[in-house]
Design the sequence.
């Protein structure tokens, strides 16, 4: 009689890649809904079209690389990349912009490097940066949020995507744009002069950020990722904003609450920074990784050329993640704290 | 030195040992100025001329210069050749000279040129050395032009723009608008585009090489099927 002998560890991990990716997709729902409420159907069309292109690109790359199609398509990672990228794109983006971005994400950032798990850079952010430096005009054309301008209907949104020449869209500077171009107003006056500023952040933006925060909190509760990187990022961003708030003078970089609830802060903190492939691995490393991203976001937002900075900050720190890991290797049990001694 | 066949030299320079996509030498100009075809041709021609001049000169003095001072000597020769070419371009194609800017004098430090001077010309007679310089330069230029065409097409949707900078007024109309109403794709014109395009060209080259190798292997005679080991058990038929 052959006895089935099991050796420890016996723990069973219920988390498959597919399940993790599905949870991330679910967690984006509140954010997407709020974005759709404030900016119209553009975001939804972006996501649906982007997802289709992503599946096509993934299938193409897998065929060329002679990998099993079904197995890799079912892990949903391409869909997550596309959804994250399309959330970051301005609503009413033309179809070729979405297609170019998704193709760069999937083909360039993911499969050129060997597919899921081998990519040193966050695919969605690579796609975003490729678009931002290639098509600055289209990429900075944000529609006005509900309450500040007309929100196009569904058919108009479709036309904006697939027949961009026939679409007469309205664009409006985002709160971060306004803050960037400010050089004479006190913060208080700036807020009363410009309708884009809401209660805490920008009109619409504050609710978008709160929705992504809620989605992120649910992911944290589901233990999809640890709290270290996002919390470190938010704390360092808020801390820098508080230090350089400057009492609301004309040279001020904006209040901490403004920075936390405007632009892509919460989306970046919970959906981009937490990418397990491209971030640091150890918990201490994640704290450093997140904190440095927060610092870079503040510096680039306030001093750089671009209004928002999550993509650049994340890509720069993706470079540094292996380096951070090297210096934050956890002590193995039974070894002393000093490096190299046992 | 041993006899060198001109055929081998050509195959080496153009394909098997191409300076740009196999040796990966001289990447600085390759990546920096190949945004358009005209820039690529201009820099390629300059490199060919410098390679030919420096290879011939190095070959001529190879018996006179001692090993200890050979590298400084080669660099001096190359720098002199580059200065001549630079002055020529300044005289005849002034606008292109302005566009290429610092990358013309930088040809001096192009590893392809010093590499060929030290690796080939210093050990060979004038004829082969001159031919090697020419063919290596042509191999480099071909890659530059392909890269320039790819980046110009992807970046602006137009091919052969501004060719009059190099070929005079009759070339004004050489421009081909491949894709009208094309949204300029800045990434292809910026340096990252050069890296990506160079990588893709290398991929294509390696693909062709591996396909050729596979075909050759398939054509080779197959060894006799079956085990050659001596059978020691069972019935021997």
Sequence:
């Amino acid at each position: 009689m052959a006895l089935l002998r099991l050796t420890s560890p016996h723990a069973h991990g219920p988390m498959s890649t597919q399940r993790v990716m599905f949870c991330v997709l679910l967690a984006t729902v509140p954010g997407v809904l709020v974005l759709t409420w404030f900016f119209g159907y553009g975001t939804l069309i972006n996501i649906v079209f982007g997802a289709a292109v992503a599946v096509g690109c993934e299938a193409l790359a897998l065929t060329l690389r002679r990998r099993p199609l079904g197995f890799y398509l079912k892990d949903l990672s391409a869909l997550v990349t596309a959804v994250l990228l399309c959330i970051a794109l301005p609503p009413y983006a033309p179809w070729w912009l979405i297609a170019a971005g998704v193709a760069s994400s999937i083909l360039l950032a993911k499969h050129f490097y060997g597919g899921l798990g081998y990519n040193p850079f966050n695919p969605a952010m690579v796609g975003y940066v490729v678009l931002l430096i290639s098509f600055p005009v289209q990429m900075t054309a944000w529609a006005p949020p509900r309450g500040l301008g007309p929100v196009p209907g569904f058919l108009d949104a479709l036309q904006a995507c697939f027949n961009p020449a026939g679409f007469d869209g309205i664009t409006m500077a985002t709160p971060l744009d306004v803050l960037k171009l400010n050089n004479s107003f006190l913060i208080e006056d700036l807020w009363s002069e410009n309708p884009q500023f809401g209660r805490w952040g920008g009109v619409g933006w504050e609710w978008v950020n709160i929705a992504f925060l809620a989605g992120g909190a649910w992911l944290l509760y589901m233990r999809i990722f640890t709290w270290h990187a996002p919390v470190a990022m938010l704390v360092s961003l808020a801390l820098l904003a508080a230090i350089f708030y400057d009492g609301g003078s004309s040279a001020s970089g904006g209040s901490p609450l403004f920075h936390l609830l405007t632009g892509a802060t919460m989306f970046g903190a919970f959906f981009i920074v937490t990418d397990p492939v491209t971030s640091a691995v150890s918990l201490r490393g994640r704290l450093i990784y997140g904190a440095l991203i927060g610092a870079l976001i503040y510096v680039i937002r306030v001093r750089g050329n671009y209004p928002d900075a999550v993509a650049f900050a994340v890509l720069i720190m993706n470079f540094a993640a292996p380096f951070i890991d090297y210096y934050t290797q956890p002590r193995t049990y039974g070894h002393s704290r000093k490096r190299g001694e046992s | 030195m041993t006899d060198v066949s001109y055929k081998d030299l050509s195959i080496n320079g153009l394909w098997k040992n191409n300076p740009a996509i196999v040796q990966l030498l001289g990447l600085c100009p390759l990546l920096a100025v190949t945004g358009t075809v005209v820039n690529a041709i201009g820099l390629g021609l300059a490199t060919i001329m410098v390679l030919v001049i420096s290879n011939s000169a190095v070959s001529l003095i190879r018996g006179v210069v001692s090993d200890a001072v050979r590298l400084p000597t080669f660099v001096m020769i190359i720098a002199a050749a580059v200065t001549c070419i630079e002055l020529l371009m300044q005289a005849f194609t002034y606008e292109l000279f302005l566009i290429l800017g610092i990358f013309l004098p930088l040809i001096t430090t192009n590893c392809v040129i010093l590499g060929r001077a030290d690796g080939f010309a210093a050990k060979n007679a004038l004829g082969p050395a001159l031919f090697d310089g020419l063919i290596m330069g042509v191999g480099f230029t071909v890659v530059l032009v392909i890269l320039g065409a790819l980046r110009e097409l992807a970046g602006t949707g137009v091919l052969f723009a501004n060719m009059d900078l190099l070929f005079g007024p009759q070339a004004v109309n050489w421009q081909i608008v491949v894709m009208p109403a094309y949204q300029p794709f800045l990434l292809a014109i910026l340096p990252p585009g050069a890296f990506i395009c160079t990588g893709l060209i290398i991929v294509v080259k390696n693909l062709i090489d591996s396909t050729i190798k596979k075909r050759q292997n398939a054509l080779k005679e197959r060894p006799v099927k079956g085990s050659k080991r001596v059978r020691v058990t069972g019935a021997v038929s």
Observations:
- Strands of chain B lie at 158-159, 176-177.
- The two ends of chain B are 59 Å apart (CA to CA).
- Chain B touches chain A through nine residues (CB under 8 Å).
